[in-house]
Structures are given as C-alpha cells and as structure tokens.
Amino acid sequence: MTSEYVDALVETASDGISFDGLRVAGDGEYTFETPAVELTELSEAALRDVAAGSPYVTNWYFWHAQTPQKDDRWAFLRRVEDAPLESETDSIHDRYEALDDGVTTTWGQLEITVTLGTAGQREYSLSHVADGADSELHSYDESLQARELARLDDDGRYRPLKTAPTLGTGWEFSGLGPEALVEAVGFFYPATITNWHREQNGNLDVSHWTETMERQSGIYQVVTTWDRGEGHEHVEWVAESCCTDSQCLKRREWQYDEERELETHGGDGVFPCREPCSLVISAARKFTKLDAEPTHSYEFELTPSEKEQLEGLIDAVAEGRVGEIREADIGKDANRYRTRFLRARRFDEDSQLCGVPTEEE
Ligand code: SF4
Q1: 84 and 188 fall within a common domain
Q2: Residue nearest to atom 5 of ligand 1 (CA)
Q3: pLDDT reported for residue 2
Q4: Would you tell me how many other CB atoms lie within 10 Å of the CB of residue 304?
Q5: 235, 248, 264: which to mutate for ligand 1, most atoms within 8 A of CB?
Q6: Are residues 119 and 188 in the same domain?
Q7: Nearest residue to 127 (alpha-carbon basis) of 147, 107, 144
Q8: Residue 193 and residue 73 in contact, taking contact as beta carbons nearer than 8 Å
Q9: Which of 204, 211, 297, 300 has its CA 20 to 30 A from that of 64?
Q10: 244: how many CB neighbours lie within 10 A of its CB?
C-alpha cells in the first residue's frame, strides 16, 4: 500500500497537487508542503521518504484513487466524515484523530459511521438510527442485501414508499468501502444522494404538481382533471396526507405550480423531493374519485363521548398510533375493546352506523 500511494504521488506531482493542505509540485526536483512543513528541491527519493506515512498523502490518495469520482457520491462521502466540499488547508491530523474515534452522521433513518483504516482508507458501517449498543443485530457486508432489508417494515409489511419512516431495525453493515456504502444507501433511499447533491449545487430540477399531472396517461389521467380553479386545497390535502415528516422523510420541494406554493409544510428532511412520487399519484387518483362524490345529510344518534371517540379513532389511524395502544388502555379512543363496544352498541346487523343506510331506499 505504501508504495501505491507514494507512486501515485510521484506520478501526479508534475501536474501539481493541491488538496486538503497538501501541496506537491515538480518533475525530477520537487516541492512538498503541508501546514507544518515546507520542503523544496527534493529529489524523487527524498520526496518518496517524506511522502511515506504522511497523512496528507494518504488522505489525498483516498479522495482521488479510492473513492468514486462521480461528483454526487464524492460530495456525499465528504459530508459523511464532516469534511468540507472544498479542499481545506487545516490540519489533516485533527480529521484523522476524529476518524480514529469514528465520525457518525445520519441520513434519514440510517446511521453511518466512518472510521480510519490502514493507510488513510476509510471503513464505513451502517445501521438503523433506532438501534443502540444493546440491540441484537444481524450482520451484513454486501450492499445488495440492503435492497431486501428496505422491502419490509418491522411487522413484515411491504413498504411501497422507500422514504417512509418505517425502515425495519435489527441489522448492521460493517467494513464497507466508499463505493459499497453509497450503493447500500442507494438501495435504502434511491436517488437521494443525487437529488441532495443537485440541490446543494442549485440545480435540482423540480417538477411541480400541475406539470407532473399533465404527464399522466391511462388510468392516472383522472388526476389531471383535479384542478378546481383558483383554489388548490385538494392538492394541499394530498400533501398533508402523504408528504409530511411523519409519513415521508423527503422534504417536499414541489409546489402546486411555479407561481403558487402550497401552504402545507414540506417537511425538514435532509434530502429533497423533486416531484410527486408514484405513491402520491396513485393516492391522488383515489382521492379524486372520493372528492367527486356529492355530500349527503345523515342523522346519527351518538353520545358526546361516542362522537369524540370517532374523531379520536380517525386521528389515531391517520397518525399510525393504533399499534401503540395497549389492550388495557380502555381510556384511549382507538382501544380495541372500546372500539368493539362502540360497534356492538351502534352498528346494526349490516354494519351500518346507527342503522342508517348509506344509500336511501
Ligand atoms: S411526493 Fe411526498 S410522499 Fe412522495 S416521495 Fe415526495 S415527499 Fe415523499
């Protein structure tokens, strides 16, 4: 390894090197500079001597020969170890010291830790933010295995939206190289690195609601008719239903159209959402049909507590809290026994609330 990064340095010196505090130049006779030393008129042998074991040189080699050179991946890996995007002149010793202890960051529900390997190489580990030191974890080392882990939640249910905050727990990847790390992250959260990087560079190509709907064809064309003149409250309802932090870790950047922003908060996620996703489009198709139904007046006889229980039940389902309510929590609106009591008391044999038919005879 030593000769590999030193050979690379000598080979590249004639082009001039300036990266993270290291400056090397020359061809036959060399200069070598770091914040701590300034050496000139070095022979190749002397350059090789001073370069061997220098953290500035191993760091340069890692970032130029061992990391993916695609801009977005490179920038993501810099973020992971909290290194500035632009090469810096500060001491690399501080960064290596931090890496020795491990530098940890999060990406959605992923926790990523980078540590220093031999000769400046980095090793990455990946786990779920909710798992701690005491958690029992299954170990993985192939990034492709992330695809399978991303498929189901902890209850074994299929996750149609990869950025929903329902990623299963109980796993860890360790000893990943930089390329394998970005691949694994891509399996967990597809395209998030690219879109984050585009946003960082001010070129995230956002496709707003109206543009995206205009592109729909076939069964989804029904959604394109869902435009009720001036108001865009229907789209607000879709965003409120699907795109808030409790439902999706992406930060919604798309709006109603270029001129009209939605009032619903887009969320605080680290990676942006550039257009309505297929889940939202498919939900909007259903919502469009529901919204087109005319309203009807019904008369139900309920006690005040029953009315409040129905409201609480809807709220608990919408917020995904039903699973947390224990059988003993009889005071909770969505408690199973309490709900069964409401059903026994207010449903008729055809499961109609208070015996009121949905359609008039
Ligand atoms: S459209 Fe909404 S739900 Fe879909 S990925 Fe974007 S923010 Fe998430």
Answers
A1: yes
A2: 277
A3: 62
A4: 7
A5: 248
A6: yes
A7: 107
A8: yes
A9: 204
A10: 15
Residues 232 and 280 in one domain: yes
Task: Give the atom of ligand 1 at the shortest distance from the alpha carbon of 247.
Answer: 3
Q: Tell me what pLDDT residue 81 has.
A: 93
CA distance 178 to 115: 11
**Low-confidence residues in the chain, pLDDT < 50:** 229
Res 233: pLDDT: 80
User: Ligand 1 within 6 A of 235 CB?
Assistant: no
Residue whose Cα lies nearest atom 1 of ligand 1: it is: 276
Q: Residue 4: helix, strand or coil by DSSP? A: helix
**What's the one-letter identity of residue 359?**
E
Q: Under a CB-based contact definition with an 8 Å cutoff, are residues 75 and 197 in contact?
A: yes
The closest alpha carbon to 94, from 119, 117, 116, belongs to: 116
Of the candidates 154, 181, 198, which is a domain's last residue?
A: 198
Based on the fold, state whether residues 218 and 335 are members of the same structural domain. no
Q: Which of 160, 181, 198 is the last residue of a domain?
A: 198
For residues 284 and 257, membership in a common domain is answered with yes
> Which tokens hold the place of 179?
């390329």
With beta carbons less than 8 A apart as the criterion, state whether 130 and 109 touch: yes
**pLDDT in the model for residue 224:** 64
The reported pLDDT for the residue numbered 359 is 84
Residues 9 and 37 in one domain: yes
243 lines ligand 1 (CB under 6 A): yes
Domain of 337 in residue numbering reads as 297-361
Locate the ligand 1 atom nearest the alpha carbon of residue 249 and give its number: 8
Give yes or no: residues 80 and 191 share one domain. Answer: yes
* Domain at 93, CATH number: 3.30.1360.190
Cα 117 to ligand 1 centroid, rounded to whole Å: 37
Long-range contacts of 147-150 (CB under 8 A, 24+ apart): 147/187, 149/188, 150/187, 150/188
Q: The domain spanning residue 256 has which CATH number?
A: 3.30.70.2320
Please tell me the total number of residues recorded for the chain in this structure.
361
- Tally the domains of the chain: 4
Spell out where the chain has E strands: 17-19, 22-26, 30-33, 38-42, 103-107, 110-116, 122-128, 138-140, 171-176, 251-252, 272-273
Shared domain check, 305 and 272: no
